[in-house]
Design a protein that fits this description.
Two copies of one chain form a homodimer. Chain A is elongated and about 65 Å long. In chain A, helix 2 crosses helix 7 (102-113), helix 6 (83-100) runs parallel beside helix 9 (149-169) and helix 6 runs antiparallel to helix 10 (181-199). With 212 residues, chain A is mainly alpha-helical. Chain A has two domains: 3-65, Arc Repressor Mutant, subunit A (Orthogonal Bundle), CATH 1.10.10; 73-199. The N and C termini of chain A lie far apart (41 Å). Helix content of chain A is 66%, strand content 0%. At the A-B interface, helix 7, helix 8, helix 9 and helix 10 of A face helix 7, helix 8, helix 9 and helix 10 of B. Chain A binds a DNA duplex (30 and 30 nucleotides) through residues 2-3, 7-10, 13, 34-36, 44-48, 50-51, 55-56.
Chain lengths: 212, 212
Amino acid sequence: MNEAVRGRDRERTEAAILAAAEAQLAEAGFQAFGVNAVARRAGCDKQLIYRYYGGLDGLAAAVGESLGARYTSPPAQPPAQSYGELTERLLLAFLEQFRADRLAQRIAAWEVAERSPLVDKLAEARAQALGRWMEEARGGLTPPPGIDAPALNALLIGGIQQLVLASMTMGGFAGLPLSEDRNWIRARLALRALIRGVYRPAFAGADVLPGS
Amino acid sequence: MNEAVRGRDRERTEAAILAAAEAQLAEAGFQAFGVNAVARRAGCDKQLIYRYYGGLDGLAAAVGESLGARYTSPPAQPPAQSYGELTERLLLAFLEQFRADRLAQRIAAWEVAERSPLVDKLAEARAQALGRWMEEARGGLTPPPGIDAPALNALLIGGIQQLVLASMTMGGFAGLPLSEDRNWIRARLALRALIRGVYRPAFAGADVLPGS
DNA sequence: GGAGTATATCACCAACCAGTGACATATCGG
DNA sequence: CCGATATGTCACTGGTTGGTGATATACTCC
């Protein structure tokens, strides 16, 4: 993707750099996310990263902005009957979503590894996208009284993230070998059991476990 | 801690290097865990790291071995009446333990950031220590039928880890501002609610929440 | 005391990194 | 057509890293 290939087109070049940045972060991880590596991958000089994005920080901010579009609304479903049912659907969907999104995984790993203005922008973008995604699907439902939904969600979302992240690097977590699909089914069932346990007794149907 | 200070004493030097390694990893994180940094902190030449530990890998392995002693058994308590009660106690204790152990946090963050023989040794040591710790407290109790304890534990432990790690770097997680102590109480209550939800109905007493 | 060895330090290498100034060339407006 | 500007490339600095060979110094045993 050098000049000879694509001509002198700033827009195209900027797009190429942004794409290279996302690819580099997703495939090689945040440790290998540097000006040199991105420029190499984009097939242009690193100077352009400084000129067009003001350095790696600006580039990361651009990645963050382009991140919002990744969280597509879950496919239209019959509206949930209760907050518990909604939570179950959302968190199971989040598991699949997150498991399939290497870029989000890398950012999540980055968030817990280091604090820097660079990762702050990405983390904020990811958090907002996730927040919007959940808010959009909520449909006016509110948690039943006596239920601290934000705390419960934080714990469960965190558990999901940890399972996915650990499965990618260590192949499992806390004794669960998550390289095998059948153990992912166990994880989904456990997640469902936890959710149903706290949001009981308002549970009637929905015994189908998506993704299994 | 150079030669003039401590004399020529291999044992002492090795101990100094190991201590420096743990301190460096705990305080500065795995990104700053390198031969140069450890040697600087230990006040000796990095050559000694190669001579005595065979490089950074061996040093990491040594850190891992010395890691087992960090997980002290929880203070003797009246034996748990049920597996659910035991789980509640253990996971709440794990939260406090992990929150206070910067070294364990750094290793946990490392585990999800990178796969390398270096982190493998540390991760394995941490996993084994955690496993022993839980096994030791189990006291012959077995999960009730229909309960997938390993999967549940993995999810909940993962959630705890994620909350702690995210609170250290981002100051919160998924909308929970974990810089405030009162929100940590919410997290503990949510954890307890989740556990009690799945292990119901075998719950009678134990309404005191440790650490609040 | 003197030889030999263990211990510690120094000096250096090649590779990589972020960042910048100078230069070349294509494109567009007068 | 020619100059100005946008775009792209090159070359270099200063700094850090992991790793290694050579050297200096202290300790030990004969």
